[in-house]
């Protein structure tokens, strides 16, 4: 495998990291606003905190996949043992895959939470 193959995936992952960090910032601000009326929005706040945890896990997995893709590319460049490179590549893809699953879970549940929030409002 060529060293530039894992590196070529980094811009796409970086874009997902950027959007996920924007989601985290927006969700933090939204929770902060809802805390002003904690009694009314207590259930919504709890659900949004769970969403925040989900996003934090997703962005951590994305960071790990970036680290492992970069390490894989470096090891490819130095022509280190192929099984190590293959194993790192599999772990990189797995971290990215599970992170995207967490983001999908966030998106689906966000619709339900938004619907509940609008019913209270």
Counted by DSSP, the helix tally is 4
Q: Which spans have pLDDT < 50 for at least 5 consecutive residues? A: none
Radius of gyration: 18 Å
User: Major sheet, described briefly?
Assistant: none
Can you write the helix and strand succession as a string? HHHH
Got a strand count?
0
Binned strand content: under 5%
- Gross geometry: elongated
Helix content: over 70%
Distance between the termini: 55 Å
Average pLDDT for all residues: 92
Structural class: mainly alpha
Question: In words, what does this structure look like?
Answer:
Helices cover 90% and strands 0% of the residues. The protein is mainly α and 121 residues long. The longest helix is centred in the middle third of the chain and has 40 residues, at 38-77. It has four helices and no strands.
What's the short version?
This protein has 121 residues and is mainly alpha-helical. The chain has helices spanning 4-8, 10-34, 38-77, 82-120. The longest helix has 40 residues, at 38-77.
Task: Describe the structure using short key phrases.
121 residues, mainly alpha, 4 helices, 90% helix, 0% strand
